[in-house]
Amino acid sequence: MDCKDLMIGDLVYIHEPECKGHRIDSIDELDGQVGADGEVYDECDIRPIPLTEEILEKNGFKKVNMTVDGDYRHYHLHGVCISWEEQSGFWYGEGDIEFKYVHQLQHLLRLCGIEKEIEL
After folding, report:
1. Which of 23, 45, 75, 82 sits CB 3.0–4.6 Å from 41 for a disulfide?
2. In the prediction, which pLDDT does 66 show?
3. Rounded to whole angstroms, how far apart are CA atoms 64 and 80?
4. b/e for 31-44, b at 16 or more Cβ within 10 A?
């Protein structure tokens, strides 16, 4: 994972996805290293956390507008609407911003002015 895609406070896996999420507390783009929990890791040790509907719901997003066959949904939180479709995944707006990972959701919320600690 490229550390240039990260921001301070982002949640990522370090080493294996089975590990709990870690919050990034420093980024050194020149050396390709990030800090988390007082340790420094190479960007090759960092893995993005896949975004799931369960993570959205656990963090207060409300599911609305589900189609009859369940292949399309909207999730709302503080005026932000995230859409999900079985074939294309998650997106914001009119399909302009697609995302797959928790750190991308964190960036979207920050851009919308929403300070929210994401729980895994």
Report:
1. 45
2. 67
3. 12
4. eebbbbeeeebebe
Computed over every residue of the chain, the mean pLDDT equals: 87
- The strands making up 11-14's β-sheet, listed across from edge to edge, are 39-42, 33-36, 22-28, 11-14, 46-47
Exposure of 110 by Cβ count < 10 A (0-12 exposed, 13-18 middle, 19+ buried)?
A: middle
Q: What is the pLDDT of residue 93?
A: 77
Segments making up each domain of the chain, as ranges: 3-47, 53-111
Coil, strand or helix at 3: helix
- Per CATH, which fold does 3-47 belong to? SH3 type barrels. (2.30.30)
Q: Is the pLDDT of residue 19 over 90?
A: no
Rounded Cα distance between 104 and 89, Å, is 13
User: How far is it, in rounded angstroms, from Cα 101 to Cα 13?
Assistant: 11
Burial of 116 (0-12, 13-18, 19+ CB in 10 A): middle
